[in-house]
Design brief:
single chain; A middle domain of Talin 1; 71% helix; antiport; NaCa_Exmemb; calcium:proton antiporter activity; calcium
Length: 493
């Protein structure tokens, strides 16, 4: 006879508990998709929130455990400061040419000692310090690149370019502080000369280095158009105060109460207002590059790294630790600062006694040595096929000079009561605008070859020859042909 009584309560509970996982699992399947988490990269913001409770170690290509906050490409696998390893890595540097430049380091103490021991040899002091600036600036560039490896890609490129501009900022500030109004003309020439050296000389060598072995180089329009467009706007902002002054100066059909001095005062005010506007434009550019469009630039730079011809060697190279990067930057910046002071102190002697024009010193001599490390880095990247990174460093350095360094030196001069303005020579201004137009025409098709690079270098050489014979302004320097007798060499020490 079948049992009509219900099963005991404990049996019902056991059966219900056996069925519970199946029902519970089915419920979870409808309310939660496990694939959703798998699609979230661990390094993204959403992935970080999801994996906040996990502390799995990350390892880079060399098997080194990655320190939190450090990018895998910049992880050295060491901590602290190791003198022998530090010297070994710094000497090897980041390229073949940069490595051989480090052989000039013995000249650095010689140049510094010569300034104090033999102040009666101004030519020797100028030459030795000019050469000593090359390895010191090279070390700034290398330490900056090692530091940039440890940062996110877009931020790293900006920081690396900024470290390259530190040498220029130091030179401008030393010129401004030591010479005051007397060095204003040299600073003006150096501002435009730095832009010309980047856009013509450095970019030309990049096109040649990339084109000789790789044929035709292709780069992304976001890098070329943003850079060339900003340079055209910056060039217009730099030369407009000069156009204003020359358009009004000497006019007989206008009645100006203060005459030429009134025009100069108003032009100084226009220069300071323009400096503030250019500085604001640089901040907008930083926001565009690092915030609103950072994903675009990061993809471009990462794609460039993948086509690097010697990427496996770069990844396998020993890296500096964060502490060693800071030590290298402190040492190199200290050397650059001292050398810049000693070099600048001899400029009056070179202009007045050796009859080298202000235009040549500012447009050619100073920019070539101050931008040497940055040029080596960009040329090496172009040689490896990384044209977008090379363009980012070349155009980025030019943009920083026009939109950051120039406003800074004008604002600092304002604070020091020095009439630092944008009254550039017509020769310098026209050279700048023509150079921007030439480079813009080469970048328009988003391709480059060694012919375009050679033409850029030739344009720079033409400007250099013209600057060498360009006379000094009236009452400044001894080579201007104004009948002024040069002062004795001993008075300029």
């Amino acid at each position: 006879m079948p049992n009509s009584h219900p099963p005991p309560a404990h049996q019902r509970r056991a059966r219900n508990s056996r069925d519970m996982p199946r029902r519970s699992r089915s419920s979870r399947e409808y309310t939660h998709d496990p694939k959703a988490d798998a699609t979230v990269p661990p390094h993204s913001s959403a992935g970080q929130k999801h994996h906040r409770g996990l502390h799995l170690p990350q390892y880079n290509h060399n098997g080194h455990r990655v320190t939190p906050g450090i990018q895998p490409d910049g992880e050295s696998g060491r901590r602290g400061f190791h003198p022998f390893k530090f010297l070994q890595i710094c000497f090897r540097s980041n390229s073949f040419i940069s490595k051989w430049v480090n052989l000039l380091w013995p000249i650095v103490p010689v140049a510094i000692a010569l300034h104090f021991a033999r102040p009666d040899l101004p030519l020797a002091i100028f030459v030795t310090n000019y050469i000593a600036m090359v390895p010191a600036a090279n070390m700034v560039g290398f330490a900056g690149s090692e530091f940039a490896r440890k940062l996110p890609k877009v931020l790293g490129v900006v920081v690396e370019t900024t470290f390259g501009s530190i040498v220029e900022i130091i030179l401008f500030m030393v010129l401004l502080k030591t010479g005051g109004d007397q060095n204003v003309q040299v600073i003006r020439s150096a501002i435009l000369g730095s832009i010309l050296a980047n856009m013509l000389l450095c970019l030309g060598f990049c096109f040649v280095a990339g084109g000789l072995l790789g044929g035709e180089q292709v780069f992304h329009e976001a890098v070329s158009e943003a850079g060339s467009g900003l340079m055209l706007v910056a060039g217009m902002g730099l030369v407009l105060p000069t156009i204003y002054y020359n358009a009004l100066n000497g006019r007989t059909d206008l009645t100006i109460a203060g005459g030429e001095s009134e025009i100069a005062d108003e032009m100084l005010k226009i220069s300071r207002a323009t400096a503030i506007i250019l500085l604001a434009a640089y901040l907008v550019f930083l926001f565009f590059q690092m915030k609103s469009h950072d994903n675009l630039f990061a993809e471009i730079y990462e794609a460039d790294e993948l086509v690097d011809k010697d990427r496996h060697e770069e990844l396998a190279k020993p890296k500096l630790t964060l502490t060693e990067c800071i030590v290298a930057l402190v040492i190199s910046l200290a050397c650059v600062s001292m050398i810049a002071v000693f070099l600048v102190l001899q400029i009056p002697y070179m202009v007045e006694e050796r009859h080298i024009s202000d235009a040549f010193v500012g447009l050619i001599l100073i920019p070539v040595v101050e931008k040497f490390a940055e040029h080596l880095l960009a040329i090496d990247e172009a040689y490896d096929g990384q044209m977008n990174l090379a363009l980012a460093h070349v155009l980025g350095a030019s943009i920083q000079t026009a939109l950051l360094n120039t406003p800074l030196v004008i604002i600092v001069g304002w604070g020091l009561h020095i009439n630092m303005d944008m009254k550039f020579e017509i020769f310098d201004s026209v050279s700048l605008i023509l150079a921007i137009l030439v480079v813009g025409s080469f970048l328009r098709d988003k391709k480059s070859n060694y012919l375009e690079g050679t033409l850029c270098i030739f344009v720079y050489l033409i400007i250099a020859v013209a600057a060498f014979y360009y006379p000094n302004p009236a009452g400044h320097g001894g080579g201007g042909g104004h009948g002024e007798e040069a002062a004795p060499a001993g008075e300029h020490h």
